[in-house]
Specification:
Strand content: 15-25%
CATH class: Alpha Beta
CATH architecture: 3-Layer(aba) Sandwich
Helix content: 40-55%
Order of helices and strands: EHEHEHEHEHEHHHE
Number of strands: 7
Radius of gyration: 17 Å
Length: 252
């Protein structure tokens, strides 16, 4: 048997419309999973992510959810609970607001914490309840290098991603013995919309690439192997860990 085979599984991927979430959804579909894609701007028709998932012969459903709206997240979780059981939850949706800490406004702070941390907990709690009842499930968070480091001019993002690291361990401590694996992936510097400003700055771009042992920015598809591993039976004895996919950045 192939321990990485996800045939018959249903995966919910948040932030699936583009970037890392899109690549994760496609990788899970290639491994056999059907996909529910969720994003603040997700087309209900599915768009590009639906095309990629269906190209692998898998089913796709799209949902639009504002992750800054606690009630909307709760309503979406209730819809999931009433439908086909969710085997895999990938908490990838996120946002970033850049400003020096002394100028980082309350609205920016609250928005980033709501999307990047609070919504992730609410969805994990609600979906995780069903997984616990069935005695099986995989919860995967998208952490960050800033789950380990402080970053520059992104205090809300750094705080939220540090919180994700703690939440990963806290849930794993409670759920590992009940058949639910909770882990996280920490992407390095990946070429997505969130890092466009860094790549457009010649000085920052050069400094970042020079510090990455692999010598290049990561691509969203570089996360595919890690997410399939954590979603599959191959990781059944992996709990509460954060896997960096960073080209060697943290080892430098």
């Amino acid at each position: 048997m192939n321990p990485f085979d996800l045939s018959g599984r249903l995966a919910v991927v948040t932030g699936a419309r583009r970037g890392i979430g899109l690549a994760m959804a496609e990788a899970l579909a290639a491994a056999g999973a059907d996909i529910i894609g969720v994003s603040t701007t997700q087309e209900t028709s599915g768009g590009e992510v639906a095309d990629r998932v269906r190209r692998h012969g898998r089913r796709f459903a799209g949902h639009q959810v504002d992750f800054a709206d606690r009630a909307a997240v709760g309503e979406f979780a209730a819809r999931l609970a009433a439908g086909r059981p969710v085997d895999i939850l990938v908490n990838n949706a996120g946002t970033i607001r850049r400003a020096p800490a002394a100028e980082h406004g309350d609205d920016d702070w609250d928005h980033v914490l709501a999307v990047n941390l609070s919504a992730q907990f609410v969805l994990s709690r609600e979906v995780g309840r069903g997984m616990l009842a069935r005695g099986h499930g995989k919860v995967i968070f998208t952490a960050s290098l800033l789950s380990f480091q402080g970053g520059i001019t992104v205090p809300g993002y750094a705080a939220a991603k540090s919180g994700i690291a703690g939440l990963t361990r806290a849930l794993a401590n409670e759920w590992a013995g009940r058949g639910v694996n909770v882990n996280a992936i920490a992407p390095g510097y990946i070429a997505t919309d969130n890092t466009r400003a860094l790549r457009a700055d010649p000085g920052r771009n050069r400094a970042i690439v020079e510090r990455i042992p692999a010598g290049r920015w990561g691509r969203p598809e570089d996360l595919g192997g890690a997410v399939v591993f954590l979603a599959s039976a191959a990781s059944d004895y992996v709990n509460g860990t954060i896997i960096p996919v960073d080209g060697g950045w943290l080892g430098r």
